[in-house]
Design brief:
Blueprint: H1 4-13, H2 20-30, H3 38-48, H4 54-67, E1 70-75, E2 79-84, E3 90-94, E4 100-103, H5 108-119, E5 129-132, H6 135-139
Parallel strand pairs: 3-5
Antiparallel strand pairs: 1-2, 3-4
Helix pairs in contact: 3-4
Amino acid sequence: MLSIENAVQTLKEKNIRLTPQRHELINILSKGNKHWTVEELYQLLNESMPSVSITTVYNNINLFCELGLVKEIQFGEALSKYEWKKEDHYHIVCSKCGEMVDVWYPALKEVEVFAQSISKFDISSHNLQFYGTCSNCEQK
């Protein structure tokens, strides 16, 4: 998993200034195992930095994605969630409430190797998400 120190070092190597907003976003993103919307990040950041704009959050999230610090998880055109960069994994998403859980599959890279062998494509990445109903929604 990517450490805060490695993220800060990446910014320094790219001559990108570590602003207080960036530093706080890195702290928020790196804690726990959460999948964030930009709006959730904005609300949390706004609690400690009331003058921050949602544009600042969007710009920094896009920057972090470009630098490989954060991964974007897309749900069609309407919604994206973001997570701190960690080892490759899949997601299970609740179709009712949107809760997302990480799933580590031991043969993850083998999926790409298999797809490449049967397609003759040069596979650079893949994305697989499972959908179902979480236990909380099942009980309702």
